[in-house]
């Protein structure tokens, strides 16, 4: 336990490096939501859970009471996931939903600790083709996802669990900034 916490803290202590891209990511989300557009969010495994968590903070609420905001996790529709995975390819499960649902002005948030999951990468590419902005939450140096997204939040760690722990922190910072933009500073 003590050594786990120490390693967690070591990564946490470096997270301030992400302040600039974090501000950029937050302002892209706010700009999109204020203009009546939406966030589409995707990832695999633990990052699928993060995608759903993020979307629920916006459609439900984060900390303060406010109007519901438009956000959709692309990980929740088992019929779409199995149809697209079965009939096309697993690499297409998010990208095809992005092509179906995204509009210019939307924001696609791709979450991948390796930065190299092909289905997340294809979702970012499909979003860019649709004129949506793209934000990557990654680790392990960022991978291809960080190179292709408009904004990359790359956690300085090579450990999947630690990267995931920092991703949820970054998501909560984004939620707090979005709340402040809609409600004013508390
Ligand atoms: O939560 C964990 C490991 O902590 C796993 O479920 C993990 O998310 C899965 O192996 C993912 O498929 C990893 O994908 P990615 O983060 O590299 O895109
Ligand atoms: Zn995990």
UniProtKB/TrEMBL annotation:
GO terms for biological process, alphabetical: carbohydrate metabolic process; D-glycero-D-manno-heptose 7-phosphate biosynthetic process
Pfam families: SIS_2
Any one Gene Ontology molecular-function term assigned to this protein's record: carbohydrate derivative binding
Co-factor binding details: Binds 1 zinc ion per subunit.
Keyword Metal-binding: yes
Catalytic reaction(s) noted: 2 D-sedoheptulose 7-phosphate = D-glycero-alpha-D-manno-heptose 7-phosphate + D-glycero-beta-D-manno-heptose 7-phosphate
Pathway: Carbohydrate biosynthesis; D-glycero-D-manno-heptose 7-phosphate biosynthesis; D-glycero-alpha-D-manno-heptose 7-phosphate and D-glycero-beta-D-manno-heptose 7-phosphate from sedoheptulose 7-phosphate: step 1/1
Record: residues binding substrate: 44-46, 57, 86-87, 112-114, 117, 164
Domain SIS: residue ranges: 29-186
A cellular component annotation (GO) from this entry: cytoplasm
Enzyme class (EC, first level): isomerase
Cofactors that this protein relies on: Zn(2+)
Binding site for Zn(2+): 53, 57, 164, 172
PANTHER family hit by this protein: DNAA INITIATOR-ASSOCIATING PROTEIN DIAA, SEDOHEPTULOSE 7-PHOSPHATE ISOMERASE / DNAA INITIATOR-ASSOCIATING FACTOR FOR REPLICATION INITIATION
Matching NCBIfam families: gmhA
Family: Belongs to the SIS family. GmhA subfamily.
Protein's job: Catalyzes the isomerization of sedoheptulose 7-phosphate in D-glycero-D-manno-heptose 7-phosphate.
Protein name in UniProt: Phosphoheptose isomerase
């Amino acid at each position: 336990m003590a050594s786990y916490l120490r390693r967690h803290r070591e990564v946490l202590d470096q997270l301030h490096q992400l302040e600039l891209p974090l501000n950029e990511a937050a302002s892209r989300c706010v700009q999109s939501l204020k203009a009546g557009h939406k966030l589409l969010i995707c990832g695999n495994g633990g990052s699928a859970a993060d995608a759903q968590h993020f979307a629920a903070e916006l459609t439900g609420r984060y900390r303060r009471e406010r109007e519901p905001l438009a956000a959709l996790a692309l990980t929740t529709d088992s019929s779409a996931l199995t149809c697209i995975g079965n009939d096309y390819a697993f690499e297409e499960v998010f990208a095809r939903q992005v092509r179906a649902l995204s509009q210019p002005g939307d924001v696609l948030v791709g979450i991948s600790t390796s930065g190299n999951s092909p289905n997340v990468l294809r979702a970012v590419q499909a979003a860019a083709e649709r004129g949506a902005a793209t934000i990557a939450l990654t680790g392990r140096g960022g991978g291809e996802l960080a190179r292709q997204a408009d904004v990359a939040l790359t956690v300085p760690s090579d450990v999947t669990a630690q990267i995931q722990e920092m991703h949820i922190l970054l998501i909560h910072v984004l939620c707090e900034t979005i709340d402040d933009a809609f409600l004013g500073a508390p």
